[in-house]
Amino acid sequence: MATRNESRRRPPQRADDEDTTRAVNADVDAGAMTSPIAGGEPILRREKREISILVARKEVTITHARYAAGEQVAGPHVHHEHTDAFYVLEGELTFEIGREAKTITLSSGGFVAVPPGVAHSLRNGSDRPARWLTIHAPDGGFAAFMRGVRDGIKVEWDISTVGAGVGLPASQALISPGETQTPTAS
Predict the structure, then answer these.
(1) Which CATH number is 107's domain given?
(2) Residue range(s) defining the domain that contains residue 147
(3) Residue-by-residue pLDDT tens, the chain, 186 positions
(4) Which helix (H) or strand (E) holds 120?
């Protein structure tokens, strides 16, 4: 027998789904109390950006980030050996995904998993701060890269910058919309 939340879950959507309506995430209880993520290994602490490593293992690295309104997070890039995933805790993140650079905006409770070979970029294009978790599985050198950012040391890892039209299509990404999902014409 399914629990109450299991029976209300929406299945994840692929980036090529045609549904452009606002979707409600049945797993988010509007009356629930939220608490800030505390601890972690500080990487960056600035007025407009904060990043901490929460988990750093060979199998997975998880970071927590907060960026101010309008901040670019990462330009177009691709990973060859690991999945890069994002879970939005607060605010909105806008992604451009796939060789066609399909634009998708995810709100609180939204999740996107970008597999190897799929180009992606992200930004906080909204007028308020955003907080999210980034999950690299396996790590792919991400934890070492983040520590290098903090310590001013260049670290090579599983990332390549890409131009337009490169990589696999957006349909390879897995998207669960959260409170809203807003596909935008590219």
Answers:
(1) 2.60.120.10
(2) 44-184
(3) 444 333 333 344 443 333 322 222 223 333 444 546 667 999 999 999 999 999 999 999 999 999 999 999 999 999 999 999 999 999 999 999 999 999 999 999 999 999 999 999 999 999 999 999 999 999 999 999 999 999 999 999 999 999 888 899 999 999 998 875 455 555
(4) strand 120-123
Cα torsion angle, 144, 148, 149, 153, sign:
negative
Question: Looking at the domain assignment, is residue 156 inside a domain?
Answer: yes
| Total structural domains within the chain | 1
pTM reported for the whole predicted model: 0.78
DSSP per-residue string spanning 64-93: EEEE-TT-EEEEEEE-SSSEEEEEEEESEE
The encoded tokens of residue 62 equal 């998880």
Residue 43: C-alpha distances to residues 87, 106, 132, 138, 160 (Å) = 19, 25, 15, 20, 22
Angle at the Cα of 184 from the Cα atoms of 125 and 5, rounded to 5 degrees = 85
